[in-house]
Amino acid sequence: ASSLDYLYFYNSELDQGWDSGQAPDRILPVKVSCSHCRTPVADEGRNMWLAFTTLFGFSQEQGIPKAFRHTDHLFYSQRCINLHQNQESTIEQERFWQGHRKKSPLWTLNTDPP
Q1: Does the pLDDT value for residue 19 go beyond 50?
Q2: In this model, does residue 38 exceed pLDDT 90?
Q3: Do the Cβ atoms of 90 and 82 come closer than 8 Å?
Q4: What is the separation of C-alpha 62 from the centre of its chain, rounded to a whole number of angstroms?
Q5: Which has the least CB within 10 A, 7, 17, 78, 91?
């Protein structure tokens, strides 16, 4: 059995769900949950996968593995905290996409978001 066999996909707009055998036919966006107990696992959208962090237990010593680190800010103009894009720069030097990466204008923290 693969990990996919343990997932259930639910679209609240359509009030429709898909088990692992029907997963390729799901209509996004969906809520992803455990197929056995329905514990929420993630939200899957048309251009993103947002895993719920409470499912992961990374230690302070281990840190966050590279594959799990953020690559984009969601709704950055409405942010409540600043995250560094890379470790070599300061947050004031960084430039951020106003919307989707490489598909919107860039801005810095020295200027107001749109």
Answers
A1: yes
A2: yes
A3: no
A4: 21
A5: 78
Q: Peptide bond before 113: cis, by omega within 30 degrees of 0?
A: no
Residue 89 has pLDDT above 60, yes or no: no
Q: What is the pLDDT of residue 68?
A: 79
What's the CA gap between 8 and 94, in Å, rounded? 39
17 burial (CB, 10 Å; 0-12 / 13-18 / 19+) is: middle
Residue 111: per-residue pLDDT: 55
Distance between CA atoms of residues 31 and 9, nearest Å: 6
Q: Which two tokens stand for residue 1?
A: 């059995």
**CB-based contacts of 89, cutoff 8 Å, min separation 6:** none
Residues 6+ away with beta carbon under 8 Å from 110: 92
C-alpha to C-alpha distance for 10 and 52, rounded to whole angstroms: 16
